[in-house]
Amino acid sequence: MKKAIQDNDLLYNILSPLVQFGTRCHYNAFDVHGLDNLPTDGAYIIAPCHQQALMEPLAVLCFAPKPPVFLARADIFKKPTLSAILTFLKIMPVYRIRDGQDQLGRNKEIFDRCRDVLLDGFPLCLMAEGRHNNRHHLLNMGKGMFRIAGETQLALGDHPLYIVPTGIDFDEYEKPYSNLVVNIGKPIPVQPFIATYLDNEPLALNQMRDALHDALLPLMHDIRDEEHYDEIMTLCNVLNREMRRREGLRNTAWNRFLMRQRISAECGVRSAELVPVVQTLKAELARLYIDEKMLSEHWSLLGTLMALLLVAAAVTSVVMVPVVRWVLLFCLLCYPMAVLPTHLVVREKVADPQFRSSFNFGVRFFPSILYTIVIAIVMACCKGLLWGLAAVAVAFIVARITGPTTHWLKNLLRNCRYWLLRLFRRGAMREMDMTYKALVDLI
Questions:
Q1: What number of helices (H) and strands (E) belong to the chain?
Q2: pTM of this prediction?
Q3: HSE on the CB side for 289, CA within 13 Å?
Q4: How confident is the model over 390-420, as pLDDT tens digits?
Q5: Would you put residue 170 in left (φ > 0), alpha (ψ -120 to 50) or beta?
């Protein structure tokens, strides 16, 4: 009997925790809210928004209580080897009209297998929009998910099935070690739609789609005004700190996400009034090569100087104290990925920006696992088993702290440059301050 995709797999069970660990290491902060919204009394479909290629499925893998099964576009399954790998990762193909009209009939088997996954009690994950989008904007949804939901609910009878809306927000799409927020919403029961589904299937599918659309919008950062998208995104960056200060909120990934939502909602309706000022500010920032977030999120001068002294003390200790230098070299020997700027290579080789973060994850994760195994074996053979185990432990520790450390060092460099501009470009910085103040006064 052919093994079902949701069946237990020993190798998958070994690799899955490593992938989850690697995913969390890929971000400076990985913040999940609403875990208590995952149903415990029935089967459910996880329906996230989709703005990156692989990173949303990896995020779902990190919070799902059971191994989820995913659907992905069928064209990536064409090569047998890649198809086998994707199947091992619990990913099934779904066929679209662009794959050919004759291929659409194959979705019947896929939908049957999806129903079996849900009947066995495993979560099914389908990206709500069916395609990724590199903007903070919810796209139109297809009907495949809702057709699977309707058929499965009929098979389940009185046992409930839910669709779980899930907002996933990246504060940066390409930059490594950014922040990720997962916002799980209240589950949408499918049973109330079944009477309509039996009588008028297209109407029921549209109703389910509208219900998910309305549930997803408040869970994600959604900028409705596409014409002024860039200006509103700038507002989200430059006003975030001021809005948090007014609300008395700490500087966390979650609070920054909440403020981006609020700024988009409040400023989107005032775009005609705000856009001219924002465009002036953007031009001034571009002339000074200042990151939008740095305008308001910069550290104080004292804080920057204290951070520089801390770095100077650390560098001095590495140079002057042999034990510290030995420990640093051992850490880098165990995990050299900490100092390799792989995102720069990915940026050059991957044309589609929506795939860059996913490729960067793969470029770092798989070589890291292989390298750790090799260095542990070498250490164990040359120095003994304890040294091999130490190499593995150090690799995991360094991998975990690389994100926050790199994020902090990059912020330090940006803050140093900011204060140097304050010293040497006083006139241009004063003009930028006046424009920023005018913008804050309008808000």
A1: 18, 8
A2: 0.88
A3: 5
A4: 999 999 999 999 989 988 999 999 999 999 9
A5: beta
